[in-house]
Design goal:
326 residues, 7-stranded parallel sheet, 44% helix, two-stranded parallel sheet, globular, alpha/beta, Rossmann fold
């Protein structure tokens, strides 16, 4: 199978998890910004497990050539520019990576692997600004709060069109706030733990009032693995189906910081700032569809996940060096 974004946080874990189960994985990544050195460190850790192609999924002919030569039965498309805040300062980079990259994969599969299945990453950001209630896949998602969210909703719409026009079989995964080992240093779990462990200030936006459905990377691996290994589960008559991948609970950022303080055994120095534009105040996902179709029960044990992450971070010098060298 082909897996794009293999050196990214989620791509790295999915590649490692599938390879450990005996799947042959060819990973694709251009190892570009941001976090170039961290991506290389992840790739180094993967080197014995997968075949790797360094290439850019926004080049339509290059992607078409790779798909043609590989003739994959499954493509897992995780390559993207992630994060709401950076999309404000680099809008064209987000449009190119997310919209053009997704289209290149769709076109390559239509032309050279029309019978293959596509599993791709969307985002909880598509749900926009909400303050209460569980987010469900059938909710309206037509008011994105950021360009990043708009690109991810654009991916879903493009996939719906290709499913309808060409019968391309696809599953979109609306990933909530994923955390875990080898994560992204700009996300709260890593940035808070790093700050507390090293005596630096942690930036707390709006006093930590925002609430997030923090989702363990192990649940993402489980969801992708189930979809890969059980192709006839779910709704085979529906060529494009979307699933939430979430913990199923909502934790405030202030509560998250308190969990990290307990796991680190020390208090944080905190700097409070207003929430940046595009940040949403609340996310909470309903994973009933994923559970019904694939039997995946996700974990809402954020405190336990934080303890595992802090233990990893204390003993991850290569990842820490890579992150701080950016």
């Amino acid at each position: 199978m082909l897996l794009t974004g293999a050196a990214g946080f989620i791509g790295f874990h999915v590649a490692a998890g599938l390879a450990a189960r005996g799947h042959e994985v060819t990973g694709i990544d251009h190892l570009g910004e941001p976090f170039r050195r961290l991506k290389q460190a992840r790739l180094d850790a993967l080197s014995a497990s997968i075949r790797f192609i360094r290439d850019d999924v926004t080049d339509p002919e290059r992607v078409a050539g790779i798909v043609h030569d590989a003739a994959p039965a499954i493509v897992i498309h995780l390559a993207a520019r992630a994060g709401v805040r950076d999309s404000l300062s680099a809008p064209f980079a987000y449009l190119r990576a997310n919209e053009l990259g997704h289209l290149c994969v769709l076109e390559a599969m239509r032309r050279h692997a029309p019978d293959a299945r596509l599993i791709y990453a969307s985002s909880s950001a598509v749900y926009g600004v909400r303050h209460v209630g569980l987010f469900r896949e059938d909710d309206r998602v037509d008011e994105p709060a950021s360009l990043y969210a708009a690109t991810k909703r654009g991916n879903e719409l493009a996939s719906s069109a290709y499913a309808r026009l060409f019968g391309l079989r696809q599953i979109g995964l609306r990933l909530f706030t994923v955390y875990g080992e080898w994560g992204r240093p700009d996300m709260a779990v890593w940035s808070f733990a790093d700050a507390v462990l090293n005596g630096r200030e942690a930036t707390l936006y709006d006093g930590g009032a925002a609430r997030r459905d923090f989702t363990d990377i192990r649940d993402v691996i489980a969801a992708v693995t189930a979809i890969v290994e059980r192709p006839d589960t779910g709704h085979p008559e529906v060529p494009h189906r979307i699933y939430n991948v979430c913990g199923g609970a909502s934790t405030s950022v202030a509560e998250l910081l308190a969990m990290i303080e307990r796991a680190c055994g020390r208090r944080a120095a905190v700097r409070v700032r207003p929430s940046p534009p595009g940040d949403t105040p609340f996310t909470a996902g309903d994973s009933a569809r994923l559970r019904a179709d694939y039997g995946i029960t996700t974990s809402s044990d954020v405190a336990g996940g934080v303890e595992r992450f802090v233990a990893w971070l204390r003993n991850a010098p290569e990842a820490m060096r890579a992150a701080h060298d950016e």
